[in-house]
């Protein structure tokens, strides 16, 4: 893993130049270094050589750590995201896929949530207990509230009194207002001009 460490400085200088100013030797150098990193990461693990304690870092993990310490991962991010460096996209993609070769998606997703996931779970439980307490208080307040009479008097069908379209009249007022019912109830009286008003 000492080869990629020395290659970072060599790779950084040509990558800072614009692609128009680069010589062909610089382009070949960048490609060779990316292929070297890819080939180092492509070496398959050898279980007989890597007899360590459970949870110990494998050779692949140590190579990745060396790449991180050297700043190669930042350089790879730059090459992957820069608009002018799209010619290296497949090499960078292959290197990134080899970096995550031995990792499962579930492990990677749970890795960053160690402490944060525990705090998030605790916050969720606290919010749920507060919500249940609030609902209980709301229920007790509803039971203590005095019952007031509803102003809704109901709706009644007046049989024998026809509305428009040969249907029975539906009366929405209280029954005590039924004596003063007329079809003009609720309608505004038509205004008669002064000239036509009766003397």
TrEMBL record:
Cellular compartments annotated: Nucleus
Ranges of compositional bias, category Basic and acidic residues: 181-191
Classification via InterPro entries: Timeless, Timeless_N
GO cellular component, one term: replication fork protection complex
An example Gene Ontology biological process: DNA repair
Keywords assigned: Cell cycle, Nucleus
Residues of the Timeless N-terminal domain: 10-157
Signal peptide: none
Renumbered residue ranges of the record's region Disordered: 180-199
GO molecular function: DNA binding
Record bears the keyword Endoplasmic reticulum: no
Predominant location category: nucleus
Protein's name in the database: TIM protein
Gene: Timeless_1
């Amino acid at each position: 893993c000492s080869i990629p460490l020395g290659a970072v400085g060599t790779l950084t200088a040509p990558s800072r130049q614009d692609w128009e100013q680069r010589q062909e030797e610089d382009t070949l150098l960048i490609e060779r270094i990316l292929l070297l990193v890819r080939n180092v990461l492509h070496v398959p693990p050898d279980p007989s050589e890597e007899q360590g304690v459970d949870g110990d870092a494998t050779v692949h993990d140590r190579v990745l750590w060396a790449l991180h310490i050297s700043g190669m991962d930042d350089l790879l991010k730059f090459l992957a995201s820069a608009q002018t460096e799209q010619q290296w996209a497949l090499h960078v993609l292959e290197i990134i896929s080899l970096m995550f070769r031995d990792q499962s998606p579930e492990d990677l997703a749970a890795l960053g949530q160690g402490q944060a996931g525990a705090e998030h779970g605790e916050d969720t439980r606290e919010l749920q207990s507060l919500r249940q307490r609030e609902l209980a208080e709301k229920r007790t307040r509803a039971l203590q509230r005095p019952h007031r009479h509803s102003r809704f008097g109901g709706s009644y069908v007046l049989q024998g009194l026809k509305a428009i379209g040969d249907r029975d009249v539906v009366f929405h007022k209280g029954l005590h207002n039924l004596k003063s019912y007329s079809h003009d109830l609720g309608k505004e009286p038509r205004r008669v001009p002064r000239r036509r008003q009766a003397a």
